[in-house]
Amino acid sequence: MQIKKIDLTKKGVTLENSYRESDYDDVFKKYRDPATSYARKVLSGEEIAGYKIRLAAFRHIRDLKRVETNDKDFPYHYDLNQVKLILAFAMICPDVDTGQPLPLMEWQQMILALSVGWRREDNQKRFNRVLLSIARTNGKTYIVNILMLYAYLVEGDGQYNQDYLYSSITSEQTNKGWNYLMLTANRLKSSEYFSNKFKDDDIAIQEMSIRSKKNRSKIIKMSNLAGQVDSFHIRLGVEDESGDSRKDENVTGKITSGMMQVTNHQLIQISTAYNDANVKFRTDQLAMTENIEKDYLRERDDFLLLVWEQDSLKEVEEPETWIKSNPILGLKDKHDSMLLSMKSERDNKMADGTIQDFYTRNMNFWTVDKAKKFLDIDDIEGAVTDMDFDINGRDVYVGFDYSIASDNTSLIFNFPYEDDVGTHMHYLYQHSFIPTAAVNGNIGLKEKQDGIPYRTAEKMGFASISSLATGDVDLDDVYDWFMNFVDEHDLNVIFFIYDKWRVNKFIQQLDTNTDIPLVPLGQDFLKISEPTAATRKVFTQKRVKYQDDPIMQASLFHAILREDNNSVAVDKKKATLKIDTVDAIIDSMSEAVLHWENFNGHAEKANKSVFGNQSAEQINTWFKNDFSF
Fold it and tell me: Which residues lie across from 303 on neighbouring strands?
């Protein structure tokens, strides 16, 4: 039996309504563990939580329902015995400061239970990857210590030559977490529960490793800079500060490649937010969020996402919501003092102009370095709309970015309009052409490299993935798609703006076969600075709207600035940033922002028509005046 299919990405479908529309009483009666209890409280509103945690809770409950209905397409189960074992270990695992075990809150027990309790049919761990993100000072190091030492001492009991890894971005950062792990291990070594285990296996706790002379299994510490992780076959790895932009993204791949030869393996990536939203740790969050929202697809079922974060920067003024990113505020004896300290920190950061630090560290909210950002995250996400916008018969400004090699080729349709109160607005629609030549035709690999779900975007109508055997973008296909789109929607193309240094077959076809006014735009600082600034302005003034398009958002998130003598432009030197759509937006905006003016931004190109560049209204007036009968 299969349960009802749910797609939270569809218009009008919400998590709350989807949860209320189904009956989970049988699940809650059978599963009384802390993780399921916390999930129920989060979904019922009894516990305040951000969207990603509510989504994780919904996923857990839905998956338990699949188990109870014997869904033949769901090859996992939730092993309550495994949950009991990890929670029992947590009850005796000492805190490094007090030397005594700390009573864990339900959200902390949820991390342990879901990481260990969900199993495959062969009883190996379901989740090969765990992505964990919480604001600072919420005790994630203690939780990770529990998981690491449980894997080494309990799950690894009777195993030989097993490798376990604790890593971080730099030696200094690695040493900080490692010291906590060493202290915890030393306290366990002297405890009544594990003293014999340490003695029997002859486990030595050292500055560089924790290793058994008897079974040769070891926990090693290694910074990302060391670059030797691919020589180990890691059973359980911890990657601390995975969201730091200094992190070498290849390290994760090296760890997971070695894991393929190890049974019951798991990689735990932990981090608080940073002020660079372009890192893979965050793009993985975005991709995984969409995977969970499309509940019926069951994609990436081996990836656990647990992110405690604020839902909006506006919540900086709403301390009652800070438990979303700081779940430890749920402790009654800590709540008042911690909240008071956080308020003081917020006020100080606002006063000295470093409020971004509070956003990232204390609210676990991703921002962009002010020195580099093209747009704030709120500006990007705030422009998303689900309104029905009729593009048929409208004036439009088209921006075009033709890219080579592995870059995408993008078209932007910029529709100027006025809202109900007369504000000058821009509705953006983009379509990208995705090459796969650089990945040998493997679109899945390109999605992973770029952090963009291209196949989803194609289904939504925002992309065309190359169908050529070579994987290249066919400019004839671009031309046909464009002309069909313009004809189908009866669009009046005011200007078609493109990079003047990239004249290609598509531009030549438009020039030869159409009367569309073509405007070449120089991409040097002098020419591009003003439209770049104008684009930023309409976004920050909330005068842009676009549909929930994953390519559009990814491109906007990735865009960073470079400056030269008070001029600004989007940095095009980093091909991996995938900013093709942003380049096309800026091209279109060079003219679209002048739509309500009596002039345009470029000298008009001579039109092939005998009427030159006159509008249809001007031509009609001419006929009436000079050819009236």
Answer: 129
* Residue 373 confidence class, pLDDT cut points 50, 70, 90: confident
- 57 closest CA partner among 44, 45, 41, 39: 39
Cα within 13 Å of Cα(397), Cβ side? 24
Which fold would CATH assign to domain 377-596?
A: Nucleotidyltransferase; domain 5 (3.30.420)
What residue spans define the domains of the chain?
Answer: 15-307, 313-362, 377-596
Tens digit of each residue's pLDDT (9 = 90 or more) over 282-321: 888 988 998 899 888 888 899 999 999 999 888 999 999 9
Cα separation, 61 vs 15, in Å, equals: 12
Name which of 95, 97, 99, 127 is nearest 112 in CA terms: 127
- Which residue type sits at 90? A
In a 3-state reduction of DSSP, which class is residue 495?
A: strand
- Tell how far CA 332 is from the center of its chain: 33
For residue 267, what are its two tokens? 């990689």
Residue with tokens 């929202």: 293
pLDDT exceeds cutoff 50 at 135: yes
Tell the burial category of 411 from Cβ atoms under 10 Å away from its Cβ (0-12, 13-18, 19+): buried
Q: What are phi and psi of 270, to 5 degrees?
A: -125, 145
Domain at 15-307: CATH architecture:
3-Layer(aba) Sandwich (3.40)
> What is residue 125's DSSP assignment?
B
